[in-house]
């Protein structure tokens, strides 16, 4: 999808850092810029201004953002900073006094004003021809897209500063969300990845206000959101879901094939003592109960999660409790991080910080258990026939695809050989013939022999300008 409006249009370079929620912010800013007649630059030198969308969640992410700002200033000189680090404007200006403007997270209008001050939009008589159902600029491949349903978070986890950066929970109207999803599906998107800071809390702040879509009334609730998205006939994947009791209501939709049997739940830990220090729900017995009940309803459900090891005060007993919990939970996909201090987060001031070498040792031990569980679960899939979505085709014809249990960027792949007619962004069926700790390997199942040879992944203008994803 080309987004250029005029070859002489003012050009904006864009650097996007951080999580999928920030990526959606970048897409919205780029869409607004396009609608005002701006084009994108393929290099710093070709840009009239550079926008850097920063990440400020961890100190390491902040340093990467600062490096990106410094690079943009050195290469271009006209830089607008936005995103989570916008809350630390004084620190940014102390290091980079020549930054043109600094705005906070999801402050789209402020970014536009800053760009206008540097390079005003030029009149374009064709701008009004952009259709109302335009899906906007996307930084993902054409066949999948992130759907952000809310901003902010009501939790006050002791290791997190997201509420300081993005505010409290602010849910979008249900009608707006479902209409955006429908437009994306009509534009060719085959998979929607639902994201927010707390997806299962969707609608709480607006008292589950009703909205209209397709001639029906829908509640702004997690369950109605899932039901509505399930009508689109494409893959729908739920991320950042907290294990509240009402999550149980969407599991039957997974069993029916309405949405993908996949839940991304940030458990973070299992030890009641550590969870309490993190200020997170700590009833791990009930969580294990729920996982068992979900698997009874939807046996093929994939549960992925992330964990923090080495949190202040975590003892060897706490860590072993976590390992035992992981063995019992048998999670399908697992990521983990060694605890890292964040300026402004209460956890930084907690006593009994764990030495770095102990944190790294625990991280390695934890991931060893997770890898073993993953290998066992994937080995059990050998011989099964699975639906896959093709993400890429290598030069040697090998297809790189994902099953229903694999989210892009964070989970594994299934590598396909022996196929004729594979196409990026299309579905296929494969028989799993081999597995390792994180990936599957498949061969053709059924007739998908089209009169086309495998082609390289298209390199369309997808705004991977000054790419940092």
UniProtKB/TrEMBL annotation:
<dbReference type="Pfam" id="PF18693">
    <property type="entry name" value="TRAM_2"/>
</dbReference>
<dbReference type="InterPro" id="IPR007197">
    <property type="entry name" value="rSAM"/>
</dbReference>
<keyword id="KW-0689">Ribosomal protein</keyword>
<dbReference type="InterPro" id="IPR005840">
    <property type="entry name" value="Ribosomal_uS12_MeSTrfase_RimO"/>
</dbReference>
<dbReference type="InterPro" id="IPR058240">
    <property type="entry name" value="rSAM_sf"/>
</dbReference>
<feature type="binding site">
    <location>
        <position position="55"/>
    </location>
    <ligand>
        <name>[4Fe-4S] cluster 1</name>
    </ligand>
</feature>
<dbReference type="InterPro" id="IPR002792">
    <property type="entry name" value="TRAM_dom"/>
</dbReference>
<feature type="domain" description="TRAM">
    <location>
        <begin position="379"/>
        <end position="446"/>
    </location>
</feature>
<feature type="binding site">
    <location>
        <position position="157"/>
    </location>
    <ligand>
        <name>[4Fe-4S] cluster 2</name>
    </ligand>
</feature>
<dbReference type="GO" id="GO:0051539">
    <property type="term" value="F:4 iron, 4 sulfur cluster binding"/>
</dbReference>
<feature type="binding site">
    <location>
        <position position="153"/>
    </location>
    <ligand>
        <name>[4Fe-4S] cluster 2</name>
    </ligand>
</feature>
<comment type="function">
    <text>Catalyzes the methylthiolation of an aspartic acid residue of ribosomal protein uS12.</text>
</comment>
<dbReference type="GO" id="GO:0046872">
    <property type="term" value="F:metal ion binding"/>
</dbReference>
<keyword id="KW-0808">Transferase</keyword>
<keyword id="KW-0408">Iron</keyword>
<dbReference type="InterPro" id="IPR013848">
    <property type="entry name" value="Methylthiotransferase_N"/>
</dbReference>
<feature type="domain" description="MTTase N-terminal">
    <location>
        <begin position="10"/>
        <end position="120"/>
    </location>
</feature>
<keyword id="KW-0687">Ribonucleoprotein</keyword>
<dbReference type="GO" id="GO:0103039">
    <property type="term" value="F:protein methylthiotransferase activity"/>
</dbReference>
<dbReference type="InterPro" id="IPR005839">
    <property type="entry name" value="Methylthiotransferase"/>
</dbReference>
<keyword id="KW-0479">Metal-binding</keyword>
<dbReference type="InterPro" id="IPR006638">
    <property type="entry name" value="Elp3/MiaA/NifB-like_rSAM"/>
</dbReference>
<dbReference type="InterPro" id="IPR012340">
    <property type="entry name" value="NA-bd_OB-fold"/>
</dbReference>
<dbReference type="InterPro" id="IPR038135">
    <property type="entry name" value="Methylthiotransferase_N_sf"/>
</dbReference>
<dbReference type="InterPro" id="IPR023404">
    <property type="entry name" value="rSAM_horseshoe"/>
</dbReference>
<dbReference type="GO" id="GO:0005829">
    <property type="term" value="C:cytosol"/>
</dbReference>
<dbReference type="InterPro" id="IPR020612">
    <property type="entry name" value="Methylthiotransferase_CS"/>
</dbReference>
<feature type="binding site">
    <location>
        <position position="84"/>
    </location>
    <ligand>
        <name>[4Fe-4S] cluster 1</name>
    </ligand>
</feature>
<feature type="binding site">
    <location>
        <position position="19"/>
    </location>
    <ligand>
        <name>[4Fe-4S] cluster 1</name>
    </ligand>
</feature>
<dbReference type="GO" id="GO:0035599">
    <property type="term" value="F:aspartic acid methylthiotransferase activity"/>
</dbReference>
<comment type="similarity">
    <text>Belongs to the methylthiotransferase family. RimO subfamily.</text>
</comment>
<feature type="binding site">
    <location>
        <position position="160"/>
    </location>
    <ligand>
        <name>[4Fe-4S] cluster 2</name>
    </ligand>
</feature>
<dbReference type="GO" id="GO:0006400">
    <property type="term" value="P:tRNA modification"/>
</dbReference>
<dbReference type="Pfam" id="PF04055">
    <property type="entry name" value="Radical_SAM"/>
</dbReference>
<keyword id="KW-0963">Cytoplasm</keyword>
<protein>
    <recommendedName>
        <fullName>Ribosomal protein uS12 methylthiotransferase RimO</fullName>
        <ecNumber>2.8.4.4</ecNumber>
    </recommendedName>
</protein>
<dbReference type="GO" id="GO:0005840">
    <property type="term" value="C:ribosome"/>
</dbReference>
<dbReference type="Pfam" id="PF00919">
    <property type="entry name" value="UPF0004"/>
</dbReference>
<keyword id="KW-0004">4Fe-4S</keyword>
<keyword id="KW-0949">S-adenosyl-L-methionine</keyword>
<feature type="domain" description="Radical SAM core">
    <location>
        <begin position="139"/>
        <end position="376"/>
    </location>
</feature>
<keyword id="KW-0411">Iron-sulfur</keyword>
């Amino acid at each position: 999808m080309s987004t250029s409006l005029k070859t002489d249009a003012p050009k904006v370079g864009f650097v996007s850092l951080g999580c999928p929620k920030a990526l959606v912010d970048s897409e919205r800013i780029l869409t607004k810029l396009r609608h005002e007649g701006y084009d994108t630059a393929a290099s710093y030198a070709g840009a009239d201004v550079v926008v850097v969308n920063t990440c400020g969640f961890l100190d390491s992410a902040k340093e990467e953002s600062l490096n990106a700002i410094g690079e943009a200033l050195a290469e271009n000189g006209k830089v607008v900073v936005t995103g989570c680090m916008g809350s630390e404007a004084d620190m940014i200006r102390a290091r980079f006094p020549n930054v043109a403007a600094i705005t906070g997270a999801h402050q789209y209008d402020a970014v536009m004003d800053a760009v206008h001050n540097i390079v005003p939009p030029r009149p374009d008589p064709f701008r009004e021809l952009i259709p109302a159902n335009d899906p906007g600029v996307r930084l993902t491949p054409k066949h999948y897209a992130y759907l952000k349903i809310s901003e902010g978070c009501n939790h006050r986890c002791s290791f997190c500063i997201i509420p300081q950066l993005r505010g409290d929970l602010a849910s979008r109207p249900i009608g707006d969300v479902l209409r955006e999803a429908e437009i994306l599906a009509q534009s060719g998107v085959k998979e929607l990845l639902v994201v927010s800071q707390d997806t299962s809390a969707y609608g709480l702040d607006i008292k589950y206000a009703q909205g209209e879509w397709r001639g029906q009334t829908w509640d702004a609730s997690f369950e109605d959101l899932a039901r509505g998205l399930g009508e689109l006939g494409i893959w729908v994947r739920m991320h950042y879901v907290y294990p509240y009791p009402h999550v149980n209501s969407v599991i039957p939709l997974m069993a029916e094939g309405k949405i993908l049997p996949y839940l991304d739940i940030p458990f973070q830990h299992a030890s009641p003592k550590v969870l309490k220090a993190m200020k997170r729900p700590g009833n791990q017995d009930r969580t294990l109960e729920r996982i068992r009940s979900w698997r009874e309803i939807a046996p093929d459900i994939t549960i992925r999660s992330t964990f923090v090891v080495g949190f202040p005060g975590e003892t060897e007993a706490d860590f072993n409790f976590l390992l035992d919990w992981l063995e019992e939970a048998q999670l399908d996909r697992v990521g983990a991080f060694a605890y890292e201090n964040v300026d402004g987060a209460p956890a930084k001031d907690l006593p009994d910080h764990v030495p770095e070498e102990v944190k790294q040792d625990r991280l390695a031990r934890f991931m060893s258990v997770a890898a073993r569980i993953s290998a066992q679960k994937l080995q059990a899939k050998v011989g099964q026939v699975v639906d896959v979505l093709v993400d890429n085709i290598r030069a040697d014809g090998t297809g790189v695809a994902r099953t229903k249990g694999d989210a892009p960027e964070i989970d594994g792949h299934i590598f396909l050989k022996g196929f004729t007619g594979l196409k990026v962004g299309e579905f296929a069926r494969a028989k799993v013939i081999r597995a390792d700790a994180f990936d599957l390997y498949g061969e053709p199942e059924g007739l998908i022999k089209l009169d086309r040879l495998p082609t390289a992944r298209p390199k369309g203008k997808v705004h991977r300008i000054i790419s940092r994803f």
